């Protein structure tokens, strides 16, 4: 292997040449290693960063792990032990440094590290960075480094056995998930042992970089900067995590030139790894431009330079980005309501959080490329999302994820990685968790995108509502463990490391009220407090009365199947039916496939084609229609509830549906399929997350239209409501309300009329023959999208015909477009170009015009011929 020596202080190459004694030197050990299993029967080259599954696949030892039933076939991989080995040489110059560290940014998970036959350390936590001093072990010529990884399944089970005093449930995942047991005993991605949307692939490997770092005086391990606003003055808390060989006196210069702000301070770095904090006061005569969430303003950044001098010698020099914004979580009494408010104020402005929940983008993190991340985050902001919750059963995401969220204005609700389980609290477990928490907070706290930390996913609820049948006599012990882990340790550490943002102990939680009740509330789902998760698959999702009028909806959702083009590469002909073994195997949520059909059947005729393949693809389609319509109904309910208190409930200030993305090709709650293709739900989000949105619903036979506005200026809007016959493309009648005030950041009623009266005044319309559309307008024209309200279930609609839509694909200067012609009303019109990757400008729409043009943004080279060949158009009337 060719040594690649790189000066850490890149900007200082010239200085380094002259004063190399002050610079740290980094030698990457990434690249090709060799990998073998415990008895040596499998031996192959393996890429670092990487994991065993990826290496086996890349070398042809296994097929695509996602193909058909391979998650079960390849179970043996995680039951074996694996050793990564590399051989490298180091220069005498590197070895001449006073300190040489062997650094692992991520080891997955339980391993011992050997250098030249000597054990240098052990690891037990994939969320930690590890470094080991190795100066005296390095030698001339070949050095042999090996990392011996224990089966994570075996490790978890051994830890469970060692914890004999009492059980820490759940012991195993539900059978339908076909997963492994005791994942709560290993500090590793919790969903890697299976989840209700994902396969069991307990990964093993070196999932982040490995390198040597050598230095003589000191090394800057990390710099973080946290802007704080108080008494109308900005300061930036700058923290330098420094590893010094010996006590070093230094002069530190902090500056943000764009803000005419500079500070010079004397300091002393003590030997070893220390945290050194400094404050930069921002010049009060400078105008600080603030960072805003997507839809509320721009995301301007500034450059912070930190230099350290020892005498006249530059001993450290780093530049980082700083964004200024403040965040508060407001929990205060609400007029007319018991309980407390729960909303985020960004830069003093209450902001409604619109978005979704993020899960790992792949079972094998080494395959989450920048392009995959970018496409998902771009897909989120392009539909008007301003927030994502990084869910606690996955991983703390890579740096790039947060940098892009900063740049795109995506607010991140960051969970700590504990989910749907109770956890042990013995000393070594707590020690490794404490180190994990400190490291992750230090790594992430400079990102303005992160607006709150949250201790865990659903573990308060698991205790409160007794998911695990804890005997009453033992409850106190489990509560103690809960408070020990999340409150006395994680919360205390976070508050020590980061005073700039709120900390929530769990999600869902009653927040301040949970604290009053000893951190586990009697009912963490109480809509009068905090955030809520709500799922119901059997209740009619078109009926808004079934949804809790919560302060903040951080999880809710419905499953659907991905499209055929996504399933096809991982399945074969015999799999392509809704009742196949494959379809059951990919469904990890008990009764999930049945629930989707039952929910769909409430309003739609189910596909009944005699052609089995068409029936299968039509069924995939109808599950997406169901999901899109359900999440639309629920999201619109939350958005229109932002200003109201009804029966003591309301003032909803967040709607984060479950879930944005997928980890593999299977049915799930996601709005984006594995591979990046948008489901119908994601196209619907373009409308239901629009800044200005008309929401229509019925209450006691009266139609209400609310105008929801996330814009700052006050508006004056009217509703324009039209009735269409299912059998005619021209409206039967149109009604307009008066212009009414809609204050900035509010939801207001702009239209109200009994449906019976509306229909009586509208020709021959009945609930069965007509549907309603509506939009908002001001004196300047239409504001926001056109929405619709079905007066009956489409399955009962009279007059809906097969629309016989024809399409022409064209290529123009702006890309590809598809012109559609329809002879009649068509609902849920779905365009699909198979496996040509890309996205349409809109899809899944109600077509009430003879012509409509949709553009297609292709993510690779394609042609009019290819698109025309693959284009299929499905609408509701085409599936039965
Ligand atoms: C993996 O290592 C452990 C601990 O050394 C051992 O008990 C176990 O048998 C090994 N597994 C295999 C498949 O060799
Ligand atoms: C890893 O290194 C240790 C110590 O040199 C050795 O005992 C072990 O056999 C090595 N494992 C492999 C697979 O090379
Ligand atoms: C603040 O900025 C002004 C110029 O905008 C400069 O004259 C002044 O010295 C700065 N004050 C400090 C404390 O840096
Ligand atoms: C489905 O799985 C069952 C149980 O594994 C098996 O007996 C059956 O043959 C499979 N059916 C098909 C069509 O593959
Ligand atoms: C669509 O085509 C079918 C079959 O050719 C025909 O019966 C139907 O009337 C057509 N629909 C419309 C709206 O023209
Ligand atoms: C619809 O499109 C067709 C063919 O592109 C065109 O001839 C027709 O004029 C269009 N009709 C309207 C109302 O735009
Ligand atoms: C499918 O259902 C529709 C409506 O219920 C019915 O008219 C049609 O005959 C059915 N087709 C088949 C093949 O069963």
Explain how this protein is built.
The protein is an alpha+beta fold. The N and C termini lie far apart (63 Å). The strands form 15 sheets. The chain has a 6-stranded antiparallel beta sheet. A 6-stranded parallel beta sheet has the order 32-31-30-29-28-37. Strands 1-2-15-7-10 form a 5-stranded antiparallel beta sheet, with no helix packed on it. It is globular, with a radius of gyration of 29 Å. The chain is built from 19 helices and 52 strands. Strand 18 (248-256) and strand 19 form a beta hairpin. Among the domains are: 3-212, Jelly Rolls, CATH 2.60.120.260; 217-322, Immunoglobulin-like (Sandwich), CATH 2.60.40; 692-796, Immunoglobulins (Immunoglobulin-like, Sandwich), CATH 2.60.40; 806-879, Sandwich (Immunoglobulin-like). Mean pLDDT is 96; it is low at 1-21. Helices cover 21% and strands 34% of the residues. Bound molecules: 2-acetamido-2-deoxy-beta-D-glucopyranose (NAG) (7 copies). One 2-acetamido-2-deoxy-beta-D-glucopyranose is lined by residues 574, 581. The site of one 2-acetamido-2-deoxy-beta-D-glucopyranose has 4 residues, from loops. It catalyses: Hydrolysis of terminal, non-reducing beta-D-mannose residues in beta-D-mannosides. Exoglycosidase that cleaves the single beta-linked mannose residue from the non-reducing end of all N-linked glycoprotein oligosaccharides. Residues 800-878 form the Beta-mannosidase Ig-fold domain. Residues 1-23 form the signal peptide.
